[in-house]
Amino acid sequence: IISADGGGLFDSTDEGKTWSSVKGVENFGVRSLIAAPSKPARFVSGTLHGVMLSDDSGKTWTRISDTQQAEMQGITAVAVDPLNADIIYAGTSHLPWKTTDGGKTWESIHNGMVDDSDVFSLYVDGANPQDIFASACSGIYASVNRGDMWKKLLGIPNTSRRTHVIRKDPSNPNIIFAGTTTGLFKSAN
Fold first, then answer.
1. Is 90 in contact with 51 (CB distance < 8 Å)?
2. Hey, CA dihedral for 124, 137, 2, 90, is it positive or negative?
3. pTM for the model
4. What is the pLDDT of residues 44-67, one digit of tens each?
5. CB hemisphere CA count around 116 (13 angstroms)
6. Helix intervals (H) in 46-164
7. In a 10 Å sphere around its CB, with 0-12 CB exposed, 13-18 middle and 19+ buried, how is residue 104 labelled?
8. In this structure, are residues 153 and 141 in contact, taking their beta carbons and an 8 Å threshold?
9. Centroid of chain to Cα 10
10. For residue 33, which of 69, 78, 97 has the smallest C-alpha distance?
11. Using CA atoms, how far apart are residues 57 and 44, in angstroms rounded to an integer?
12. b vs e for 129-165, b when ≥16 Cβ sit within 10 Å of the residue's Cβ?
């Protein structure tokens, strides 16, 4: 379970009957959480205090985002490359970021994206990890080179452009779903 505004991360070992606060991320305002597909014990969390990483299934957490970089404090979305657990993406209330060394260094990856795009969701294609989607307040973006260059996708009306979640259909890679402020959209191309 994730929480916002002072909340943390909670876990249950009895199928949800009882819950306990996870140490190391109390009151961090957890906004997103993902497990690394190629390293099952690795979890990455986006919080109001930056990007947090656990390599022991969530028992202990370490901040891996730059504490001196103000933009890396409020993380709204995280994604992990399915083949390389050291490639981590983070969305902020301004733009997306990427690390290729497990969080030691970070770079802003916003070429082609409207400046000041609140990134709500990031999705890395499991079959083609160089293909990434980002949903933001300014629309939906796609990258075919791990975020080095973005292209805005057209098709969703401006009144529905706040896309909070974007995902590919796992059974048909040509279909993309977008959860927006006005409903669910589907694209087959």
1. yes
2. positive
3. 0.88
4. 999 888 999 999 988 889 999 988
5. 0
6. none
7. exposed
8. yes
9. 19
10. 78
11. 10
12. bebbbbbbbbbbbbbeebbeebeebeebeeeebbbee
